[in-house]
Amino acid sequence: MTDTERILSLRAALHEHNRRYYVENAPTISDIEFDRLMHELAHLEALHPELYDANSPTQRVGSDIQTDFQQVPHKYPMLSLGNTYNRDDLSSFYERVSQGLGRQPFDVCCELKFDGLSISLIYEDGCLVRALTRGDGEKGDDVTANVRTISSIPLQLRPDSGYPPSFEVRGEVLMPWESFEALNLQRAAAEEPLFANPRNAASGTLKSKDSRVVRSRHLDAYLYALLGDGIEGSSHYENMQKLRSWGFRVSDDMCRCSTLQEIFAFIDHWDTARHSLPVATDGIVLKVDSIPQQQTLGFTAKSPRWAIAYKFPAARALTRLKDVTFQVGRTGAVTPVAQMEPVQLAGTVVQRASLHNADIIRSLNLHIGDYVYVEKAGEIIPQIVGVEVSRRGENTGAAVCFATHCPECGTPLVRYEGEAAHYCPNDVSCPPQIKGKIEHFVSRDAMNIMGLGTEKIAEYVGSGLLRDASDLYALRTVPCDGYIALVRDDVTAEALHDALFCPLFSAEGDGARLPYVLFTPDSRTGRSLSCDNLLRAIEASRQVPFDRVLLALGIRFVGKVAAKTLAQHFRSMEAIRRASAEELQAVEGIGATIAQSIRSYFARPADAAFVARLADYGLQMSMPERERRGSELAGLSIVVSGTFSHHSRDEYKTLIEAHGGRNVSSISKQTSFVLAGERMGPSKLEKAQRLGIPLMDEAAFLNLLEQGKTPDE
Ligand code: IVH
Q1: Residue 66: its pLDDT value, please?
Q2: What are the residues whose beta carbons fall under 8 Å from the beta carbon of 2, sequence distance 6 or more?
Q3: Which of 109, 92, 6 has the alpha carbon at shortest distance from 56?
Q4: How far, in Å, CA of 638 to CA of 666, rounded?
Q5: Which residues line ligand 1 (CB under 6 A)?
Q6: Looking at residue 649, what is its pLDDT?
Q7: Are residues 151 and 249 in the same domain?
Q8: With contact defined as beta carbons under 8 Å apart, do 393 and 421 qualify?
Q9: What is the pTM of this model?
Q10: 326: domain CATH number?
Q11: In the prediction, which pLDDT does 708 show?
Q12: Ligand 1 centre distance from Cα of residue 235 (Å)
């Protein structure tokens, strides 16, 4: 078997195993065997870049290159559904349909209404070629690169399963509860704002500019509509069975009903049963099953006359507001938290709710002692949605005012122009800010120092051992009368001994405490495993690449993507420190807010000194020399325009990403060059000429990838 044949057969086999695993929940090989086949394929593909295929199972890993989403018109408009919370409206719908069909009998297909975001998938010859969000219904964002990372969406359909050459499927992209809860736990630990519900999380994720982030968040998808000229079929229900047989994930929980009673029974069942599903649902969708009958009924301007959504009412409870407390986060942002009398709501006891900011408190006109309505409409985090003003009385306290001073350190709070949040500006000595900054510094995406959780950090900061994250690199151990003491390297063994055993003679003077943390050694080895592991993790973090060191600094608004972009562009901390706001903003993806925040960070002596200490401790303060393969286009912003003969436009975009470049949709001063094919649009050509942006033809571009020469070399 040639390598080409082996690649093709591995791809086909892995597509099929993916389907068995993700769509049918019935894998037929072990995870280890799956990984082995995947490795073999990746290895062969690396040897044969000419056989690149964006739909290969290896491409689901995503890429960290930012994508600007292109807006693409929908072939068929993406309408919404009329919806109701009221069962009488369903009877009226049923009656309208019956009347519209001249009293012919009809069936209604009842389905779960999945609570995510709708997606349109286009397949040509069994391959996924494009995925669009709903957008404004007429045109949506091209999120193909992100959708390719969702394991339950087939990239390649089962051969010989009878799919038509060209069709569109629609469905809902979701974040399963399990992924959602894990994501929010992670975000809480990093003090990032939590997603209120899986829908927001799925939508934020699908619009992420980094498809590796999408991959890591484990989205899922259910499909519920088939469209295409000449393939409409006769029944929606049967179309869904066809979709399933071609390899799509279609919900098993749908039912063809021929009476209104059956429809209500379906609703009654799922009103409670839905709580044990792995994904969020917010209602039931009713669709007339026969496609010819759907065509008879037609559409209004906004929605089909043959379908309606029934939404489950939101869980709501009334309870009493006892107090409002204020929490200070890593960035100094102060969040008001409502403390309420415990109340049962959708299966859990609720006693706290975030009030977000001062504006929300004002708009609710909250008073201590108020009876408040708390809702969890599919939202995992309870929200106060209103006040029962009729129950205000003598026992009601004062109107809730936002704190004026930091509850932790007493510093007066500030509110920056254009922002809803209040901040404690004391980032040098406000305890939760110090702890939060260290937590962020050691987090997985940043320095990845394992073994330092929230509690340990609180202990080390509380004891004075860590004054900021740079102190981590000054830690060493000193054996001390049967214990192992973790101290900073400015503490001598003698001083430590005095502090521990003769506090009166300690050079630190009365009451001043020498910072240390004691570990009990293992009686057999005389060492402490947890202490050794911590020091080893700290040591290893000196090799963490520069972009993550930049992220670890915790500069406001500089998240993972911005840190990577800045690191790739400027290549060293020194270059970033020296860059003007204009130079920072000239980088694609870096706006005025980020640029200003970076300038202010390096202008603050305490922050600049912190960075200097990290540099002295040997952390990576610059990017290594460019690697030849795979990053020929690093730092370049490229516009692809026109038609090509060797690869499709989409393939060129993927190639650009694979070689470290960035696709941008419109030409600007920041564009490095235009990959220009045949019939490039005249307005793009004119703009490129006006701005002096070079054009590169297909042959020169392929040569560039092969030789690794950038245009200016
Ligand atoms: S059918 C013409 N079926 O609900 C619209 N939609 O409010 C056809 N949704 O935008 C949509 N589950 O995102 C349909 N089983 C289901 C659904 C469903 C969720 C969403 C969809 C749509 C919204 C309508």
Answers
A1: 45
A2: none
A3: 6
A4: 9
A5: 79-81, 83, 111, 113-114, 118, 172, 224-225, 285, 304, 309
A6: 83
A7: yes
A8: no
A9: 0.58
A10: 2.40.50.140
A11: 59
A12: 17
What sign results for the dihedral spanned by CA atoms 40, 42, 47, 52? positive
**Which pLDDT belongs to residue 510?**
44
16: domain CATH number? 1.10.287.610
Is 113 noted as a catalytic residue in this protein?
A: yes
Cα gap 238→219, rounded to integer Å: 26
Shared-domain flag, residues 285 and 326: no
Residue segments in the chain with a per-residue pLDDT below the cut of 70: 25, 61-67, 189-191, 377-380, 503-513, 626-630, 707-713
Tell me what pLDDT residue 245 has. Answer: 94
Residue 111 alpha carbon, nearest atom of ligand 1? 15
Task: Report the relative pairing of strands 383-387 and 517-519 from DSSP bridges.
Answer: unpaired
Q: Which residue has the tokens 């009329």?
A: 82
For residue 230, the CA-to-ligand 1 centroid distance in Å is 23
Same domain for 119 and 256? yes
Rounded CA gap, 665 and 486, in Å? 54
Protein residue closest via CA to atom 16 of ligand 1: 113
Look at residues 224, 257, 239, 273 and name the one whose alpha carbon lies nearest to residue 90: 257
**Domain limits for position 26:** 3-61
Query: Is 629 a domain residue?
Result: no
The amino acid at residue 34 is F
Give 308 Cα–ligand 1 centroid separation in angstroms. Answer: 9
How far is ligand 1, taken at its centre, from the CA of residue 215, in Å? 24
List the strands of the sheet with 307-311, edge to edge. Answer: 83-84, 307-311, 281-288, 108-114, 255-257
Of the candidates 88, 103, 82, 104, the residue with the CA atom closest to the CA atom of residue 287? 82
Query: For residue 515, which of 462, 469, 479 has the smallest C-alpha distance?
Result: 462
Which token pair is 436? 């939060």
CATH number at residue 171: 3.30.470.30
- Report whether 679 contacts 689 (CB < 8 A): no
Joined together, the tokens standing for residue 39 give 């490795």
Q: E-assigned strands of 396-494? A: 422-423, 475-480, 483-488
Locate 117 and state its tokens: 């975001």
Taking the C-alpha atoms of residue 11 and residue 38, their distance in angstroms, rounded to an integer, is 9
The whole-number pLDDT of residue 503 equals 61
- Closest ligand 1 atom to 113 CA: 12
Question: Which listed residue (113, 376, 564, 653) is catalytic?
Answer: 113
